[in-house]
Each structure stands twice: as C-alpha cells, then as structure tokens.
Amino acid sequence: MIGRSRRSRSEAAPPPGGRRSADPSTGPGPRRPPGRRHAPSRSLGTVAAQVFLLQVIVVLVLVAAAATALVLQSRYDAQNDARQRVLAAAEAFAHAPGTAAALRSPDPTPLLQPSAVQAQTGSGVDFVSVMNTKGVRLADNDPQLVGTHAQDVSRAVAGETFIDTFHGKPSDAVRAVVPVTDPSGRVVGVVQAGIQIQTLGHLLDQQVPMLLGAAALALALATAGTALVSRRLRRQTHGLGPAEMTRMYEHHDAVLHAVREGVLIVGADGRLLLANDEARRLLHLPPDADQRHVTELGLGPELTRLLVAGEIASDRVCPAGDRLLAVNTRRTAPYGDVPGLVASFRDTTELQALSGRAEVARGRLTLLYEAGVRIGTTLDVRHTAQELAEVAVPRLADVVTVELLESVLQGEEPTGAVHRMRRTAVRGSRPDTPLQPVGDLIRFVVADTPMVAALRRGKAVLVPDLHRAGDWRAQDPEGARRVLESGIHSLITVPLRARGVVLGMVNFWRGSGTPRFEEEDVAVAEELGARAAVAIDNARRYSREHAMAVTLQRNLLPRDLPEQDALEVAWRYLPAQSGVGGDWFDVIPLPGFRVALVVGDVVGHGLHAAVTMGRLRTAVLNFSSLDLPPEELLGHLDEMVGRLDTQAAGDGEGSMVTGATCLYAIYDPVGGRCTLSRAGHVAPAVVDPAGRVTFPELPLSPPLGVGGHPFEAGELELPEGSRLVLFTDGLVEDRRRDIDEGLRMLASAVGHADQTPEETCRALMETMLPDRPSDDVALLVARTRLLDPSCVAVWDVPFDAAAVSRVRAEVSRRLQEWQLEESSFATELILSELLTNAIRYGAPPVRVRMLLGRTLVCEVSDGSNTSPRLRRAASTDEGGRGLFLVSQFAERWGTRYVAHGKVIWAEQTLGTAPELDSAALLDQMAW
C-alpha cells in the first residue's frame, strides 16, 4: 500500500530539478541495505532533539513556578495559622475565670504574672501580656516589660477584639488583642498574645529546603519522562530530519490523493483515520468525516458491517448510494504498530445491470426460503392454503386463488375426480377481487382452459396475456370480462401434486401496474406449488389421524361419572396443543360404598398414547373388580406394562409403554379414610373444610413398567367436606414455570372454604392453563362425605355356630329400625349362609357389618384367607348350595382381602325384590 515502502532514505526519489539533499546520508556512496533503519541522530537538527529541548525548558519553567507558588502558599499558611493561634490564646486567657477579678484587685501583677507565663508556655505563642485600661503592662512572660506601656491597644480598650501585624518594640509580631470585661460588661483590662515575625521566618526556612528538594525531584522525573518521550519520538521518526520528513509526507500525500482508487484507513476502534480524495468522492463522505466512527458516515449496512467487523475481503461488491464498489480490505498488522484496517474501493457501476438481475434472482430465492418457513406452520389444510396465498402476494402475484378437492378438505385420500374443487383461499393486494370467493365450488368442464391443461399435463401453464387468450374465457365469459376490466392481465396456473396425486390447484394473477409473467416466474410458481402441496398433504394426513385419535380417545375416556354417595366429584380433561394424549382419569364404585379414584399419564401424544391409555384404563377397571388394595393393584398393573414392553421389544413394531404414571386412591366413607398409592405420579392436593391446602408426603414408587420395586401405600384421614384434588403434571408444569411454582399457584387457586368441586375445577382451568397448553391435563376433584353412623351396624360374633341365630335376630331388629322389613327374609338368609361358612371354614375373629345407603350391604369378615367359590352341587352332595342361594337373593356379592383375613359381602337393591331363577332354586333345594 501507499506509504508502506521499507526503502531507506537514500532510495527516495530526488526532488524536482534532479538534485538530492545535501545530507551526507543521501549523497554518493554506498547505500544502506533495504529494511535497515537510520541510526538515531542526537544533534539539535533532528525533530526529536528540538522537541526534547523545548520540553526541558517548559518543565523548568513549570517547576520554578510551582516552587514559587509553594513558598508563597507556605508563608500564607504560616501567617494564617499564627493569627488563629494567637487569637485563641488571647481569648482563652481573657475569658479565663479570675482574670477580670485579678484586674480589679489592688495589686494584680502577683496574681496575673504566673498565669501569663503558664499560658504562653502552654499555647505555644511567643508572648502573653496583660494590660490595664491605660495600656500599662501588669503581667508579661518577660518580667522586664511589666510596667511599660503597650502600643496601639486603644481599640481593645474600647471593647473591640482585633488581630494585626505589629511593627515596633520590643519585636515585630503577629498579635491578637482581646478586651477583658467584668460581669457588667465594662472593660477592665486587655490581654495581648503574639508570635514574633522572626519565628515565622524560622519555620519557613525549615520548609524551603523540603520544597526545593521536591521541586528538584519533580524536575528530574519530568526530565526523565521527556527523555523517554523524545526517545520514543526518535524511534517513530527513525531519526529523520525535518526536511526528510517533509519530503516523505509530500510524496506520500501526492501518491495517496493522485490514484484513481479510494483508500480508507480505519482504526481499531472503528474510527476513520484517513480518506483520500477518491474515497471521499465515491462514498460521499462529509467534510468532517475524520475521526468519526464508520457507523456515522452513512456508508450503507453492508459496507459498514464489513469495516466494523474488520473482515478480510477481496473484490467484494457492496452498494454505496447509486454505485457498486469492489472493496478490498486488509489489516494493518503486522505492517504497522497500531492495529487497524485499510480498505480500497474501485467503482464498478458498469456491473449494475448484472447486479440487478442478480437481485431479482436473490429475491426469488428469498421468496422460496420464506415459503419454506411460512407455509405449513400449522397442520391445518385451510390455513396452509391461506399461507400459500399470503406468501405469494405481492412478491410474485397481485392475486392468488387456491382450490382443493373436497376429499382433501375432509382429511380423506384424494380421489380421481379432479374437475370439481372447492375454493379454499383468496388473497389480493386490493380488497376488491373479481374472482369467486372462498367456499364456491369450482368446476373445470371446458377442456381448452389453462386450468384443465395444467391438470392434464401435471405441470404449470403460463398465460402471459389474458386479453389475447380466448380459451380461458370459454367456461365463464361474464366472469372473464370482469377479471379483465379489473386490470388482471397475466396468469400462471399450477396443479398441487403430492406423492403423484393431485390435491388441488393454485392460480397466480397479475394486474395493472405489474409486468407480465415470464418463463422465469413459472419455475418459482411451480416450486411454491410443490412446497405447498407437501404441506397440504401433511396437514390432510394429520387431520385424518387426529380425527381418528380424537374419536378413539372419546370412546376410551369416561363419558359420565357413575352414581355413588361417598364423593361429590367434578372433572376436566383438556388435550394438548399438539392433539390428544395419554392422560386419563376414572371414578370406580367399590363394594361397601367405597370409591376408587384414578389419575394416570402416558408420555407422548397421538394414537399410540391414546391406545396405551385405553389399555391401562381397562386394566385398572379389571383389577379394581378384584377389590385389591391400591399397592397390589399398581403391582399387577406394573407387571402388565412390563409384559407389553417385552412384546413391543420382541416384535420391533410397537412403542414402549414405560413412562406411564398412575395414582390410585380408595376412599371409605364409613371412617373417612383414604388409602393412596402412586407410581411415579405427582402427589394430590388436600383441602380441608377450612380451606387450608396441603400436599401430603405419600410413598413414591417408580413409573409403571420399571419393575423390581414394590409399591407402597399411604393413608389419609379426611374430615367430611374435605376436597381431594388429583391431577396430571400438565396442570402445574409448563415451559414458562417449574413444578414448584405451579404447585404454589394451585394452592392459591383452591385454598378457599366452601368451594364446590365444580368451582374448584373452573378456578384451576382459568388460573393455571393458557389457551393452548403444551401438555394434556386431567383433573379430578372429589369432596368427601361420611356415611351416617346410624346407617352402620357392627356385631362381633363368637366363633360358635350357636351365635348365628342371635346375630340373625339382632340384624332383623335393625332392619325393622331402618324400615326394611321387606328385605328381612333375603337378608337373614344371606347372613346365615355367610356367617355359617365363616364359622365353619374360617378363623376368628368373626364380625358382621351392615351398611345402609342407596343399597343394603351385608359384610361378614373372619381371620382366614381362604376364599369361598360358587359351584353347582351334585344331587348326591349334602352341602355346597349356600353361595348359590346368596347369589340368587343378592344383587352382587364378592370377597375382598384385608390385612388380617377377608371380607365376604353381599349387596341388595332397596325397594325391589330379586328376580329368582325358581327352577334352579328348586333344583338346588331338592336335596
């Protein structure tokens, strides 16, 4: 670059006239090798020496001025300090207790003389004198002065305190004169304290050497700094003299500004250091461009970014106003000591036409890129068609219409009948479009139209001038006339094809003020149509699968809650934004008026999650019919999931179920006890009748399918009116918050007394969830009820068959109290059979419990784990017919196991007699 030559001074061009400098270094003789620097010159002829001498003189003057200022300041400070000290000493003595009384005494000198000497010694002043109102010294630290007259104290006698510099005998001094007054305010004497001028001079003499030493040190440091600066300057100038530097600058400046190429030098901080005339002309730089940041010069975004980033570029074309510049950039390092960037510019405006065509191509590529990003953002067929129209207007066309087959709009497979389509999207640069609106049925019945030709050929058809083309008017002459009158003059029609099947058609129209379509536009239109067709087909297939998943899930989830008296239940299910998922809930009535509550979550969305959810829900329903404890039920469910995962891994086609969670709870309204067990599921919230919210610490087991871990259960005592809130993690966990924050929000939403389950569900939906949640949400809220104690009867039965009749009689009396005489016969028969079996085949203790609710339940428990089974007895058997009679008279019966033994129960419907199989009953009783 210009100015980067490493030639020695002897190789510099001679000045005009052909003569060289008289400097010996430039005269005849051997030249220095290239790249060798000049030895630093120390004569006063060099710039470095002149600068050094000037700086030394300036430093001497500054140091002398500073020393003088310090001496004057020290003198001023000493005098000011002396004035303060003498005033303090004089006032302290004048106002001391006893001074005024001593002055009024007949002989004050003996009283005041010791005090004056002591005050002078303690205050550090040179003298302290006490005078009467006539100015006669009554006491002084110099006894020889006692009795003499003091000068110029009349102002103090008049009652004024003053400080002055005294010149006279006995010595020149800075003194303070203070009047002494009696209690009535009358001046009875004067106190004078002072410091001699020679004392101040002595103190100043002690400070002057220190000041002069500091000045000498400053001069030495300044001289050393100046020497370092001069040495640095000599290194920068390479020892050149003023004439040589002037000549070098003139050559550099002439070459820099004479070339027809713009040159910029930018510093490391992004500021402009140098710009030649050509650069100012090409870039239209302002006159004050030097030292301004390149972002403030209006160079255009691309060129500015290139200069700020400091990138290395070669012949990069950048726009600058109405010009196109070829830019070359290089870093100054390692060619210079200061980092920066050098940029050169060449005017390449002749490439503007070529650049214009490149801009058009880039615009088309940008359009296709935006189409790939904006088309198909949602899996909705109609919305995807509208996105296609929005992308193309006005970048490619003034009006765009999209027609799709009816089967495609309904999510079905496209049929071969492509001559009937439904207009799905219309987009125009103006609101008034003469084309048919959305929803109209479009028929392609005339074979010569461009649309039919495009469908037949399977590729785009261009009609550059609609005024000259008559085939497209044949189907609808009146509509064609309105289109031409609106200014539309050019058309490209493209069939939408995916997987070799036609889904619909898109038409691109251009109107007045826009040039006609060209062949280059056809390729862009076909590419847009191809991308849109794939997105529409994906949306169609998703719509079909989504409809299937929704239908499946609606059939798998509970449609209504069963009738029961133990809990008041409300529920909500909200699918995720991406579609149906695997969350489910259930309410299952159990014997003894107990109710099971279930909430589960299968990871994922779609058909697989919905099918897996249905399988798990069905399994829970089946296992609950066995009346198993919650932990045992989850254990069986875990084994089932493990078998399903093994099968899926074996055939390589199914998906693993592992990742499902479940919470199973059984509520007993007799005692208000709730037993819960959970497999990887979030704990429920418990709201007591007062509105206090807790999250009980329940045993947590791994998710279903992990295996190898036993399940545990926890128990809760729930007062009547408590609310149990069971939910999946989609309610409390979201991308915008963690689960802890979600639990705090849930507690705040449900923590209100007297809130019904329905109100609780509504509050949680409004508070916790956005419009379109990212995960499924299943919510189940149950408010507890307790069975009336008067509807519960319990008897402990001795392990003796003779006690059966007594218990039967007591049960009969209780049925009379409950006004259920019509059920006495059947109940006594059921009780006799169950109780006799318990005593005969079971183990103590034996207990009978009767529960009255919407049905009548009879329970007989014993300490044995053997379970009776129903069988048909042979004609020769003497027994085995008891459970058959129980099944005939009871609506339902069964067995459940408890911690110590089993319970056999039978349930009868109130108000209706059981329908007995008389033939079978007589057959069983014939023995």
TrEMBL record:
Residues 380-546 form the GAF domain. Keywords: Cell membrane, Hydrolase, Membrane, Transmembrane, Transmembrane helix. It is a multi-pass membrane protein. It is found in: Cell membrane. GO terms for cellular component: plasma membrane. The chain crosses the membrane at residues 51-72. Residues 1-41 are annotated as: Disordered. Residues 564-784 form the PPM-type phosphatase domain. It comes from the Bacteria. This is SpoIIE family protein phosphatase.
